[in-house]
């Protein structure tokens, strides 16, 4: 659907907010600067007939907290090297599974004990002003990507990211604000916080609306389907293609199936991702992209709209478990009509290992897993898997 008036867009960001209204307004206005009023008369704009939405799961390039021992080799410059040709599309999406900030202390992890031995200068990372000791880094699930990594993520091809997840709050408001500023500064669209629930942008005459959900503090709640529907409906009135992201479902290799009920994990309600995905499509969502379980889950076509229930760990360096199913993930390249109907998906399988990082997987494990799980959970869905491609029956 298209906008009735460009002026109405400013109200969109306010729908789900219970705090930070002035900041939300400012952010919404800022995003509107990418939309030209000249394109508002949609019926006279020539739109490209097909669009490509590329989607991956979790992205956390490495953390300088609790120490720089969690940063990737060559400061992350090669982190996406093997997959760059596949991160090209009108929309290239990932879930930013951490903060982007050079500051901030996390309460998630106790203070690190002082190193007993002063490392030689050659082992000192001057950029971070933190001594890199030869000690094995402690495991700490608070993720702080250096601000300079935002450009690396942008240069890899990403232009849309979810910041609704269990790590965006790892460094409190300092981290949230710095993450948003860093993404703004490199031109990556984002959404998912109560202070920034949605975003709208235009590319090649097509308007996209993006909204992201999670069960976590400060994020737009995946467990509140009524509110989710309101947000999606409002977007659908203003844009051609509505993309919905969720960070939901239980985690790990034991939880690759979609249970079609509310999932409880670590005493948290992690959403009923099946009901949620259908619910948002019922009111206008065109693509639903799930992540959070750290493993791949099945896919489904519902009302001609594509749902990926979990895209797994795509590029997750450091403390993440990348063994077995946790270390394989698909890159989906969806071809849609310019109104969001699904046509095809190309699946590129990737894998991660502690020693080699992110690589292509010539054995296509992620594709095979998508195919296997889709047959188990969505046997009747109108999709066929064939030679690394998913097409309509
Ligand atoms: Zn997560």
Question: How are the elements arranged and paired?
Answer:
Elements: H1 21-32, E1 50-60, E2 91-96, E3 99-100, E4 124-125, E5 130-131, E6 144-145, H2 149-156, E7 160-162, H3 172-186, E8 189-191, E9 198-203, E10 206-213, H4 225-236, E11 241-247, E12 264-265, E13 268-269, H5 273-282, E14 287-291, E15 299-302, E16 305-308, E17 313-316, E18 328-337, E19 342-353, E20 357-360, H6 365-377, E21 383-386, E22 389-392
Parallel strand pairs: 1-2, 1-17, 2-7, 3-6, 7-8, 10-11, 11-14, 14-16
Antiparallel strand pairs: 1-18, 4-5, 9-10, 12-13, 15-16, 18-19, 19-20, 19-22, 21-22
Helix pairs in contact: 4-5
Keywords:
393 residues; alpha/beta; Purple Acid Phosphatase, chain A, domain 2; 10-stranded mixed beta sheet; 6 helices; 22 strands; 18% helix; disordered N terminus; binds zinc ion
Task: Report on this structure.
The chain has a single domain (6-392), classed as Metallo-dependent phosphatases (Purple Acid Phosphatase, chain A, domain 2). Helix content is 18%, strand content 27%. It is α/β, with parallel strands linked by helices. It has 6 helices and 22 strands. Bound molecules: zinc ion (ZN). Zinc ion binds at residues 97, 165-167, 247, 292.
Short structural summary:
The chain has 393 residues and is of the alpha/beta class.
Oligomerization status of the protein chains: single chain
- What is the CATH superfamily classification? Metallo-dependent phosphatases
Largest sheet: 10 strands, mixed
Reported by name, the CATH topology is Purple Acid Phosphatase, chain A, domain 2
Instruction: State the distance separating the first and last CA atoms.
Output: 26 Å
- Total beta-strand segments: 22
Low-confidence stretches: 1-43, 118-136
Helix count equals 6
Task: Examine the secondary-structure arrangement and name the CATH architecture.
Answer: 4-Layer Sandwich
Structural shape: globular
Output the CATH class name.
Answer: Alpha Beta
């Amino acid at each position: 659907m298209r906008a009735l008036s460009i002026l109405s867009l400013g109200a969109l960001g306010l729908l789900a907010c219970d705090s930070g209204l002035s900041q939300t307004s400012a952010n919404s206005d800022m995003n509107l600067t990418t939309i030209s009023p000249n394109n508002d008369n949609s019926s006279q704009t020539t739109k490209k007939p097909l669009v490509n939405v590329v989607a991956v799961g979790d992205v956390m390039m490495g953390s300088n907290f609790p120490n720089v021992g969690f940063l990737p080799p060559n400061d992350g410059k090669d982190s996406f090297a093997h997959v760059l040709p596949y991160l090209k599309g009108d929309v290239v999406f990932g879930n930013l599974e951490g903060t982007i900030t050079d500051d901030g202390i996390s309460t998630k992890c106790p203070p690190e004990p002082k190193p007993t031995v002063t490392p030689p200068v050659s082992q000192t990372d001057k950029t971070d002003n933190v001594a890199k000791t030869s000690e094995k880094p402690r495991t700490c699930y608070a993720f702080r990507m250096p601000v300079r990594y935002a450009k690396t993520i942008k240069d890899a091809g990403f232009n849309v990211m979810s910041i609704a997840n269990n790590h965006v709050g790892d460094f409190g408001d300092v981290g949230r604000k710095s993450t948003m500023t860093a993404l703004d500064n490199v031109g990556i669209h984002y959404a998912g916080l109560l202070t920034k629930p949605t975003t709208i942008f235009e590319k090649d005459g097509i308007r996209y609306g993006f909204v992201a959900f999670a069960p976590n503090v400060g994020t737009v709640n995946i467990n509140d389907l009524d509110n989710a529907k309101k947000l999606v409906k409002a977007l659908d009135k203003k844009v051609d293609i509505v993309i919905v992201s969720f960070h939901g479902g239980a985690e790990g290799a034991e939880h690759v199936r979609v249970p079609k009920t509310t999932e409880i994990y670590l005493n948290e309600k992690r959403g009923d991702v099946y009901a949620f995905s259908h619910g948002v499509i019922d009111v206008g969502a065109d693509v639903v992209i799930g992540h959070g379980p750290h493993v791949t889950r099945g896919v489904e076509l519902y009302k001609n709209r594509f749902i990926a229930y979990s895209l797994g760990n795509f590029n997750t360096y450091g403390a993440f478990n990348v063994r077995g199913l946790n270390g394989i993930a698909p890159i989906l390249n969806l071809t849609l009509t310019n109104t969001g109907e699904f046509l095809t998906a190309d699946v590129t399988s990737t894998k991660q290992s502690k020693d080699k990082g992110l690589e292509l997987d010539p054995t296509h494990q992620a594709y095979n897993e998508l195919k296997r799980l889709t047959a188990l959970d969505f046997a009747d869905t109108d999709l066929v898997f064939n030679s690394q491609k998913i097409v309509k029956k």
